[in-house]
Amino acid sequence: MSAVLPLDAYSAPHTCQVLSDLAKGQAARVVGVVPSAPDVPQDLTRRLADLGFLPGERVHVLARGPLGGEPVAVRVGTATFALRRLEADCIRIAPLE
User: Fold this and answer.
1) What's the per-residue H, E or C state across 45-97?
2) What is the pLDDT of residues 60-96, one digit of tens each?
3) How far, in Å, CA of 61 to CA of 69, rounded?
4) How far apart are the C-alpha atoms of 7 and 34, rounded to whole Å?
5) Which of 6, 8, 26, 61 is most buried, judged by most C-beta within 10 A?
6) Domain span at 48
7) Pick from 25, 28, 32: which is nearest to 9 by CA?
8) How many domains does the chain have?
9) Would 1 be classed as within a structural domain?
């Protein structure tokens, strides 16, 4: 299964949001990783997928930085990462069922 999905796969805004929208303590499931803007390099989305942000994985926001909520500390699987807003905006999520 490819972790990088076409942008039109996220046309239903009620079912999908970006990881940077989650508040501290919230959890969700990864839907996919796509560039958040036209100038975001493809290697960034590939790197996020390589780190474990794959469809179906559960993510949990552990903490947020003081100014603007950046960076955001996220747990995916057994690993914890600090992501910039640009990176978190590339990770599409859906609520846990």
Assistant:
1) HHHHHHHCCCCCCEEEEEEECCCCCCCEEEEECCEEEEECHHHHCCEEEEECC
2) 999 999 887 889 999 999 999 999 999 999 999 999 8
3) 11
4) 7
5) 61
6) 7-95
7) 32
8) 1
9) no
Short-list 44, 23, 20, CA closest to 33: 44
d(CA 23, CA 20): 8
Residue 42 lies in a domain: yes
DSSP letter at 31 equals E
State the DSSP code for 23.
P
Q: What is the mean pLDDT of the chain?
A: 85
CATH number of domain containing 77: 2.30.30.90
* Calpha distance 82→75 (Å, rounded): 9
Q: What is the pLDDT at residue 83? A: 96
pTM of the predicted protein model: 0.82
